[in-house]
Each structure stands twice: as structure tokens, then as C-alpha cells.
Amino acid sequence: MTSQIVESEDEFEEFSELQQHSKPKAQPSVDEAFDLDDLLPVIGEFGKYQKLLVFGICLPACIPCGFCAFNQLFMADTPEDYWCRVPELLQMDLEQRKYLAIPKEMENDKLEFSKCYTYGVNWTQFLDSIEYTDESTITLEPNSSWPLVKCSQGWEYNTTSVWSSIVIDVIKETYTQLQLIYI
Questions:
Q1: How many independent structural domains does the chain possess?
Q2: What pLDDT score does 16 carry?
Q3: How far apart are CA 11 and CA 7, in angstroms?
Q4: Which of 69, 82, 55 lies closest to 161 in space, CA to CA?
Q5: For residue 119, is it within any domain?
Q6: What span, in angstroms and rounded, lies between the C-alpha atoms of 79 and 97?
Q7: Does pTM top 0.70 for this prediction?
Q8: Is 41 part of a structural domain of the chain?
Q9: How many other CB atoms are there within 10 angstroms of residue 99's CB atom?
């Protein structure tokens, strides 16, 4: 702005009024003037397009999200009671098989069957060495001198409370495939 020399007070007042009128007035911004709540009744609040968005896109997209969020509750349950699988003894009764092949160890101040170890015995040779005279009188006892080995044939699970889960099914499948590879 150019500076002008003002000779009297009247001219000064007149000049200042001119300056105020020549300044552009502040316009309200576009954001302040636009209010969605005022616009929605004009264009329609919940029409076909909004219904399409909600029922056609948003709700169907929630179904897989819910499955991903809650599937672990149903699929990843691990049974509390499991023990090493000994394929050579599968023809025996469950309790007798556990008693003979699985060592007991202290867990939570209780003597329970081990979850990770079995006796390292050649079970086929052991069963062949037993003389079967009368099956009802045969009581097989584990020998405390037998070596302990980690489970190598998979696990058996007590399926009274958890009959199927990803833990049970994948581990069984993995050991079955590994056995087929090494045969």
C-alpha cells in the first residue's frame, strides 16, 4: 500500500474509512459452512445406497472377521491328559497299555503318567517273550531299570472332554506322514 500524506483530521478520518471498506471481509471457510447434519435430510438419510453399503458390503465382511477372532476357542484346545503313543501295544487295553509303557512322574504334587517319555523297550520282542498260558492271569509289570526315551511315535489323547482340535488332528497327521516317509 502506498503511503499518502494527510493534511487535516477530516481527511484522516475519511481516509481510514476508505481503508476499512477496501479491506476484504473475512469469508467463512468452506468447512465451517458445510454441515453434514443439515445436508442429510436434503439428499436422503438412509436410502438404497446406504442399505447396499451396510447389508451388501459391511455385514458380509464381518463374518470372516468373527471367525478369525473366535476360531481358536474351538480349534486350538489342547487336552490335559495325553501320553506317548506306542503302536506295538495298541491291541492292549488302554489302562494296561499306559501302565506298562508310560513311566509315572510327579506333576503338581501328584504321581501321573509322563506326557513326554516312554520306556525304551523293543515292545515286539517283549510281547513275543511272554508265554501266554492263561490270559486272565497275566499281569505285565514295568521294570524300573528300563531306559526312558522321548516320544517318537506321537501321542494318544484322552478325548472325553476334547474329542477333536487342531492340536490333536495336526500332530496325528504329521506323525503319520513322517512314518510314511521313513518306511
A1: 1
A2: 62
A3: 7
A4: 82
A5: yes
A6: 19
A7: no
A8: no
A9: 16
Q: Please, are residues 156 and 82 in contact by the beta-carbon 8 Å criterion?
A: yes
Please check whether residue 8 lies inside any domain of the structure: no
In a domain, 108, yes or no: yes
pLDDT digits (tens, 9 = 90+) for 63-90: 787 777 777 766 666 677 888 989 899 8
Residue type, 57: I
Length of the chain: 183
Partnered with residue 112 across adjacent β-strands are 105
How many angstroms separate the CA atoms of 24 and 59, rounded? 51
Distance in Å from the first CA to the final CA of the chain? 97
DSSP the chain: -------SHHHHHHHHHHHHHHSPPPPPPHHHH--HHHHHHHH-SS-HHHHIIIIIIIHHHHHHHHHHHHHHHHH-PPPS-EEE--GGGTTS-HHHHHHHHS-EEEETTEEEE-SSEEE---HHHHHHHS--S-GGG------TTSPEEE--S-EEE-TTT----HHHHHHHHHHHHHHHHH-
Model confidence pLDDT, tens digit, residues 25-38 = 555 555 566 777 77
Q: Are 152 and 85 in contact (CB under 8 A)?
A: no
